[in-house]
Amino acid sequence: MLELNKENFESEVLEAEGYVLVDFWSQGCEPCKALMPSVHELADKYGDKLKFAALDTTKARRLAIKQKVLGLPTIAIYKDGSKVEEVTKDDATVPNIEAMINKYL
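The line above is the sequence of Thioredoxin; the predicted structure tokens follow.
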């Protein structure tokens, strides 16, 4: 799981070829922290097919807003630098995230 920040987001996500899953989370978001181990398991399961990355929005608030992340947790899939789909807040469940991943494999 790649740790994203303001410095590497553009090169690792927006300029990346293929699919990248980004877990937008923050230290103060309990649902985010509860979901994180499951997202790491999905990274172990599908990591050879798409890139998995996480961005702590506490340290990159403007970047999150620019990416239209208005609620947490948000799990987004990017293809060739463009956001193609996301699940957010109550919809960010492991079955929904896995279903979204499978659409793009």
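Note on the example: The beta strands are 2-4, 19-25, 51-56, 74-79, 82-88. The helical segments are 9-14, 30-46, 61-66, 94-103.
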